[in-house]
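Subgroup meeting minutes
Present: P.N., E.W., G.H.
Scribe: E.W.

1. P.N. recapped why we're keeping a running log of single-chain structure predictions: easier to compare across weeks, and new members can see raw inputs and outputs side by side.
2. G.H. added today's entry (82 aa).
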Amino acid sequence: MSENDLLNRITLNPRIFGGKPIIRGHRLAVEHVLGMLAAGDTPQTLLDAYPWLEPDDIRATLLYARKVVGEERIEPLVLEVA
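Output recorded in log:
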């Protein structure tokens, strides 16, 4: 599956979680999936917990996160020393 196909699994709906990215229109936020993975849950745990969830949805979530972080820019704070 191409990156574009994966990213099409991530949708936005202003009526669900205030427009945060969700998976295929379901009430499961990308940040929730990332949080579960970061907490040590396995992809299989997520698939068991959400029977409609597919392995490509998890891949799409990780790809979306990589894309968002890849676009992040931090401006250095410049302090003048007198």
